[in-house]
């Protein structure tokens, strides 16, 4: 797995490709190209995939004369990286501001069960931080 935070290691397009691979678990270059917004050329997608492979984020196998790619890093690492990026970009790095936005009934409609689950997570975090 590559060293350092993912947000510093990946370009926007590389992150988009990783998102596609996490969702699909594995995909060919053509399948990835079809799922990309404002899709670049196939050769550009292949070049980005080679870069991601060189960086250690994906690996490929050959199947029926085509390369099939899959992520090497854990989805949890990518999720944590994406969350840090969102916190930094939209909430000045403040987790309480992000949580407040999630709890805003004008923005999200959370069920009683979801609110109870969030409350339990907060209680557990409090216990673990002692």
CATH architecture classification of the largest domain: Orthogonal Bundle
Strand percent estimate:
5-15%
Which range best describes the helical content: under 10%, 10-25%, 25-40%, 40-55%, 55-70% or over 70%?
55-70%
Query: Order of strands across the biggest sheet?
Result: 1-3-2
| Molecular shape | elongated
Give a written overview of the molecule:
The protein is mainly α and 130 residues long. It has two domains: 6-71, Orthogonal Bundle (Arc Repressor Mutant, subunit A); 94-130. Helix content is 62%, strand content 11%. It has helices at 6-9, 12-24, 29-35, 42-55, 75-91, 95-103, 112-128, and strands spanning 27-28, 58-63, 66-71. It has a three-stranded antiparallel sheet. The radius of gyration is 18 Å and the shape is elongated. The mean pLDDT is 89.
List keywords for this structure.
130 residues, Arc Repressor Mutant, subunit A
Describe what is shown at a glance:
The chain is mainly alpha-helical.
Which SSEs are present, and which pair or pack?
Blueprint: H1 6-9, H2 12-24, E1 27-28, H3 29-35, H4 42-55, E2 58-63, E3 66-71, H5 75-91, H6 95-103, H7 112-128
Antiparallel strand pairs: 1-3, 2-3
Helix pairs in contact: 3-4
């Amino acid at each position: 797995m590559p060293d350092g935070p993912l947000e510093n290691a990946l370009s926007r397009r590389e992150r988009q490709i990783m998102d596609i691979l996490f969702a699909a678990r594995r995909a060919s270059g053509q399948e990835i190209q079809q799922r990309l917004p404002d899709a670049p050329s196939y050769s550009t997608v292949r070049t980005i995939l080679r870069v991601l492979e060189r960086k250690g984020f994906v690996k490929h196998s050959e199947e029926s004369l085509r390369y099939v790619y899959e992520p090497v890093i854990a989805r949890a690492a990518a999720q944590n990286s994406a969350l840090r990026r969102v916190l930094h970009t939209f909430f000045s790095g403040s987790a309480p501001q992000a949580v407040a936005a999630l709890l805003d009934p004008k923005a999200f409609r959370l069920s009683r069960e979801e609110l109870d689950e969030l409350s339990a997570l907060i209680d557990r975090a409090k216990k673990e931080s002692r």
